[in-house]
Specification:
This protein is an all-alpha fold. It has a single domain, classed as MFS general substrate transporter like domains (Growth Hormone, Chain: A), CATH 1.20.1250.20. It contains ten helices and two strands, in the order ααααββαααααα. A two-stranded antiparallel sheet has the order 1-2. β1 and β2 form a beta hairpin. The longest helix has about 40 residues. It is globular, with a radius of gyration of 21 Å. The relative contact order is 0.18.
Length: about 260
Amino acid sequence: MLASSLFLARPPVGWTPPNWKEKQVKIRAKVNTSAIDMTPLQMLRQPSFYIIYLMMTMLAFGGLVVTAQLNPMASSYYVDKVVVAFGMTALVLAITVDRLLNGLTRPFWGWVSDHIGRENAIFASFILEAIAVYALLQLISRPVWFVALSGLCFFAWGNIFSLFPSITGDLYGNKWATTNYGIVYTAKGVAAAFAGPGAAWLFAKTGSWTKVFWAMIICDLIAAFMALLWLKPLAARAVKNAERTASVANIGTPIKARGVA
């Protein structure tokens, strides 16, 4: 990593990839993109930030439950020591498959969101996540299904690490995108508090993972519909307001970027 960093260079101010303007027009036709760069404090004044934060917390919860509790879940349903393929147990194979799919999901859903919009991609992926979790609840005691469906859960949730950075940059601009997403990313820490000790406590209290699974399903469904029915129209209004603000600024009227999202 240190050696690689020596070859990194800051691009010239205003640099864009070849034919970027044409590509940007096509992307903006499908993706809500703001014309204003917001500082972190400006972002924190936007209602859309808190919707995004709540959604990421709920969506991260499901994936982190599977990450943190996969081993005890496998033990509870007696599939952890069942050899499935290549001398690997269901648990070991599931962990391997999960990591592969968790990596592939990020460029895949990023590509999908460039074509259908961030909010639509979040909706589609987390409806799929809810279905995968429900199916896993029904078939978790079958080793092969345990591997396949836990992998599908990871494929459907790992995309938050490509979709949420993208939507943060789309709505709040590029200049402060890293800092702004750093704030949004703390939602994962909030989710981890519920996914680790919270899910373990609920299992210890009830003696079953069923309620934990249903909590995951409910969080996925609520966040999916929030993206489609709440965030999507709010983001569209934010972009229109930002365009009007930028237009006024361009004709010489000094104006400060206000809460538009």
